[in-house]
Amino acid sequence: MPKTTGRTNQSYPVSFILLGISEWPHLEKTLFWAVILFFTMTTLCNSSIVLLSFMDPHLHTPMYLFLGNLSFLDLCLTTASVPQMLPHLWGPDKSITYTGCVIQLGVFLWAGATEGVLLVEMAFDRYIAVCQPLHYTFLMHRPLCWKLVFLVWLSGLIVSLFQSSTTFQLPFCPHHLLNGFLCEMPVLMHLACVDTTANEWQMTMTAVIFTMVPLGLILASYGCIAQAVRSMKSEEGKKKTI
User: Fold this and answer.
1) CB atoms within 10 A of CB 33
2) In terms of C-beta density within 10 A (0-12 exposed, 13-18 middle, 19 or more buried), how is residue 148 classed?
3) What's this model's pTM, rounded to 2 decimal places?
4) Dihedral sign, CA of 206, 210, 212, 217?
5) d(Cα 7, Cα 171) in Å, to the nearest integer?
6) Which secondary-structure segment (H or E) carries 162?
7) What are residue 97's DSSP bridge partners?
8) Position with higher pLDDT, 217 vs 14
9) 168-196 burial, b for 16+ CB within 10 Å, e for fewer?
10) Which residues, 6 or more positions from 30, have their beta carbon under 8 angstroms from its beta carbon?
11) Are the C-beta atoms of residues 114 and 155 closer than 8 Å to each other?
12) 146 pLDDT higher than 60
């Protein structure tokens, strides 16, 4: 059982135990190598996109600015989870420190909220490029794009700070066992020894705002793009759009 501090409600543990797939230990080594392969490919691909979009002057466009930030988000997600997951799969130690759990959850929430809004901006960029091509340079100028990127990261940070703080204010049960590989909100709330209805509603509303609403806007944007492409009479114009 993990140690706790001297608080009477034992809500501030020194560490958590991530159970993962401890019920099937024979699968851990196989999953270890699969995760290594996935992590290597993801890191190489996203790092290449970030470097190319930054170093190549021909790629200093709004589309590649957003794409580079999206790849950087994926790097943040993988580096916040995989390096911590690999020792758990290979060795007997399944613990994660309280600080490590806070950081991991914060990064997940930050990247998740940021990614949803960033994908909307990418869809809007493509909508302007296809449906309003004559106004594209005027509307999607570089200073505006940098401001949009900043606002996206800021909104994700605000969501992360708010949700992670309310989650870790919950009093946790003494055993501190988490059913999973990672520190995620549903897993941590399941460990709480109080009613978490308010936290669950908060998580649901955030998911709707930063997942379902962006999904609807993205689908609407690409629906308009598809309609604009179908209405093009020139086959060359359609090919350029694709």
Assistant:
1) 11
2) buried
3) 0.81
4) positive
5) 10
6) helix 142-168
7) 15
8) 217
9) bebebbeebbbeebbbbbebbbebbeeeb
10) none
11) yes
12) yes
How many degrees, rounded to 5, is the angle at CA 53 between CA 49 and CA 55?
Answer: 115
Q: Which tokens go with 75? A: 């790097």
Token pair 């962006």 in the structure block, residue: 214
In the chain the beta strands, taken as DSSP E runs, fall at 15-18, 95-97, 177-178
Average pLDDT, the chain: 84
The structure tokens listed for 87 are: 């020792």
CATH among 1.20.1070.10, 2.60.120.20, 3.90.25.10, 3.30.360.10 for 15-241: 1.20.1070.10
Which residues neighbour 211 within 8 Å (Cβ) at sequence distance 6 or greater? 116
What amino acid occupies position 171? Answer: P
Q: Is the pLDDT of residue 213 over 50?
A: yes
Residues 69-80: tens digit of each pLDDT:
999 999 998 888
